[in-house]
TrEMBL record:
The keyword Coiled coil does not apply. It comes from the Bacteria. It comes from Tritonibacter litoralis. SUPFAM superfamilies: FMN-dependent nitroreductase-like. Transmembrane segments: none annotated. The lineage of its organism: Bacteria, Pseudomonadati, Pseudomonadota, Alphaproteobacteria, Rhodobacterales. Pfam families: Nitroreductase. This is Nitroreductase family protein. Keywords: Flavoprotein, FMN, Oxidoreductase. Residues 37-205 form the Nitroreductase domain. One of its GO terms (molecular function) is oxidoreductase activity.
Length: 230
């Protein structure tokens, strides 16, 4: 996409405009809020299949996110292979056992108690898809030389938010998982040194017995997460 010889600015007319009235804007904002409030992280998945093209369209949505210098420093590895999911689960659980067996401070373990998590991660093999998010710390030109990516964590975080919203809009449930360290994912998925794995997202339909922790229903009120300066 990038070339050393052709890096020029071209101004194009804004291709898409949403021209809502004030009332329509309020209605759309309230509609999206209600929609996103139905999103829940789950740990009990059904093995019901999900079509590849659904996942592909959600990743396309993630790829439309803004990024530093439009370098789009992300890569999404979508895994449905049972063999690969098993490998990822085994290696993730090995890291998680270290975490729960003394690798994490007591305060962190205490904070997780209301969530009910353990080192066992069956969702990594039951969910029909795992999407592993990678952050690309640098890119390469056609001649193999490197160029720097900018605002990589911020850009990848925005794209991941787009992805989670798209998956929810498609009627799917998700669980974000961040074993630490995660470099084993580069080897499992054949990703280069330039890419840093940031997250595993389990994707699928909830099991009939799926639950959510009671504490997950509590969200901070507006006055605790925002301030308006008018």
């Amino acid at each position: 996409m990038f070339s050393k010889d052709s890096l020029s600015y071209e101004a194009l007319p804004l291709p898409d405009r949403l021209d809502y009235s004030d009332a329509e804007m309020q209605a759309e904002a309230a509609k999206f809020l209600a929609h996103m409030r139905k999103r829940h992280s789950i740990r009990e998945f059904s093995d019901r299949p999900v079509a590849r093209e659904v996942i592909a369209d959600c990743i396309r949505t993630a790829g439309s996110a803004p990024s530093g210098a439009n370098h789009q420093p992300w890569f999404f590895a979508a895994v449905s292979s049972a063999e690969l999911k098993q490998r990822i689960r085994e290696e993730a659980e090995a890291e998680e056992r270290k975490f729960y067996d003394g690798g994490a401070p007591d305060e962190w373990i205490k904070a997780l108690e209301p969530i009910g998590t353990t080192a066992e991660k069956p969702h990594l093999t039951i969910a029909p898809w795992l999407i592993v998010v990678f952050a690309q710390r640098w890119g390469t030109f056609e001649d193999g030389s490197r160029y720097k990516n900018y605002y990589v964590p911020e850009s990848v975080n925005i794209a991941t938010g787009f992805l989670l919203a798209a998956l929810h809009t498609a009627g799917l449930s998700t669980l974000t998982h961040t074993p630490n360290p995660m470099r084993f994912l580069n080897g499992a998925l054949g990703r280069p040194e330039a890419e840093k794995p940031t997250m595993i997202i389990a994707v699928g339909h909830p099991a009939d017995t799926a639950t959510v922790p009671g504490v997950a229903k509590w969200k901070k009120p507006l006055e605790e997460i925002s301030a308006f300066f008018e």
